[in-house]
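Researcher: Structure for this, please.
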Amino acid sequence: MKQPVRGTHGKPASKTKRKSREELNQAARDRKRDKKHRGNASGSRANPDVSSGKATQSNKPKDPRIGSKKPVSLVADGTTVSAPVKKVAKPAATKVRLSPEEELAQLENSERLDTLLDRMENGDTLSSEDQAWLDETLDRIDELMEQLGINMDDEAEDEQAEEDMYRLLKGN
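Model: Predicted structure, token format:
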């Protein structure tokens, strides 16, 4: 068995030296100063320091306030929401190459062309867009008629009609 340790017999217990009031005050001031400099600088949440390791990725620092890009459900749990409908991109309309006869027939049967020509005959003024479209369409019709060999000489028909009128008048 172990025997208990005996204390020193003749020596009284050493007293710890008590600090004076000035020393206690100074130690308190030191502790307070250490506590005061703890934590982040003011404004560090809004303007964080960028670490040098991340600066090599891009010149512009990433804003830490911007959070996750993960979508958040805006509907309460338990309710069903139809999946968002994605717009299907329509393929660009490819221009079908029409034969000159078909294109000419299509242009001559155009309702817009008829209404604009009627308005012109009635003396109405057309907007600049309508006038430009009308001129363009009539030019295209002329080109197609030349390609097809259709000749619409109004003067020749008028001369022929006048000669017929003279014959009829002289004959009576």
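Researcher: Any notable elements?
Model: The mean pLDDT is 77. The radius of gyration is 50 Å.
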